[in-house]
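Name: Serine protease 27
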Amino acid sequence: MEGEWPWQVSIQRNGSHFCGGSLITEQWVLTAAHCFSNTSETSLYQVLLGARQLLQPGPHAIYTRVKRVESNPLYQGMASSADVALVELEAPVIFSNYILPVCMPDPSVTFETDMNCWVTGWGSPSEQDRLPNPRILQKLAVPIIDTPKCNLLYSTDTESGFQPKAIKDDMLCAGFAEGKKDACKGDSGGPLVCLVNQAWVQAGVISWGEGCARRNRPGVYIRVTSHYNWIHRIIPDLRFQSGRAGGH
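Structure predicted for Serine protease 27:
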């Protein structure tokens, strides 16, 4: 449906989609730090907003250039903490029914396992395939998995001699223990949103996983609330959503 996820953006390099992101103000997009190995080459990047499909974005979509990219200085490489970046657009965008920001949670918002949460993106439908044309935005309802359970899943069936990947404090797992459905390559940086008090609030940024939709390897997201101070420092006038509502 057009305008169903109006904060979803496509971040493109030399005209091709490589990461997702979410619009959080009229001039800032939240995404993953691992999407940008080189934050200085801003001229190569553009952001597509208001689109449902990538091939023919349609009359509501706009492209905008990138002014700067701020990666979290604590980020240390794939599957590490602080895999978040902020992208400043060249000029503020005008909001419409198809281009709107998602709510940012302040640290009082807790995301529970029973909440209604969705992940969206134009990434690959599986490890082998590319999203077929016209490359329509995909959505998937995913349950949040609590961290102790997620660590247990990631320590199951690990190859001998390999240290299982640890789910750090600023990470959040969502998906299915049996696999089957998950975010994948090209979805990185996109949003995991949950319904809190009738508003869509971004719980996480798509960060990493072991393959896609593999058994015992749910998707791992960076918690937005863990990086509240860093986001607030870069965008001082950003308003955050508070709330102590459960998932009912």
